[in-house]
Amino acid sequence: MEDMGRYTIEINGIKSEAFLTVEEADPTFMFIRPLNRRSDGYVNREIELECTVNSGRAQVTWFKGDTPLKDNDDFEISKDISAGSFRLTIKKPKLSDAGTYTCKIDKQEDKTTTDLKVVEWPFRFVKQLLGVHATEKDYVCMECELDEDDGEVQWFRNGEPIKADKRVQIVKDGKKRKLIFKEVKIADGGQITCKSNADETEGELVVEYRNAFNKKLKDTHGVERERIVLEVELQDQTASTEWTLNGAPIVPNDRVEIKNLGGGRHQLIFNKAELTDSGDVVCESGRLKSTCKLTVVKGEDRPVINFEGPVDGPASKPLVFNVPYSGK
Question: Which residue, among 253, 246, 255, has the nearest Cα to 226 in the 3D structure?
Fold first, then answer.
């Protein structure tokens, strides 16, 4: 720099002058902390690539491959002059943002490069699915929870994908993931699985028939030694029944039968009914109950005839016998 100034040459009294201007040379910069050779990042998780130059006065340009990068909706370029740190921030990384990134010092050959790998965030379940017992046509919500809001999941029943429709909803509510049946069906039952890209959780959905008596017991009168049939019909064709008489369980035997006819029809049959069969008959199926009053009246008895002595009467005229007897 001290060479700068006015120079004069004189020959035989003739002068020629010129002014020499010397500009300060461009400083020499160097990377004192280059980029990592390899970098990793996750989709939709901000990624920062950072390196350090020996002076914050340096000017750098960032590249992806051979393409220069600028501040925009996808990238943010910043530096800390005091520390000489230069930073490239990828705001919302996508899988396509993977590649080679370079930071190059302007007007110099010095550069540093990293190979960036971008993968999906491994979403984990922090709240597991629980098994659910329901009755058909019930509203059912099966719920689990991820560790992050933006995780995508898939729902399966017995290994088959579940598709949403007017009756079945798949809901994303913050970190919660819900499978909703507005009116659950018997066919919806099974092992329900919710899967993320790195985890899964499952719970069993058990759907029972919505049971009711389509046909209830009715008060019945019968006669001793005759056959009496009591019948009910259940909406749930798979449901079982329990029968009691005056609070005591009815045990089938040679005279008393309990039949499941299928289609929800159940019968209690008294063959040759006895007077002791009278009472309160109850048919129960789960929490359902149907009752009736069974009345067995005495049947016919062999009469006892009290006929005394011979009967006399005139010939050629009607002869009437009065036969006294006891019994019914």
Answer: 255
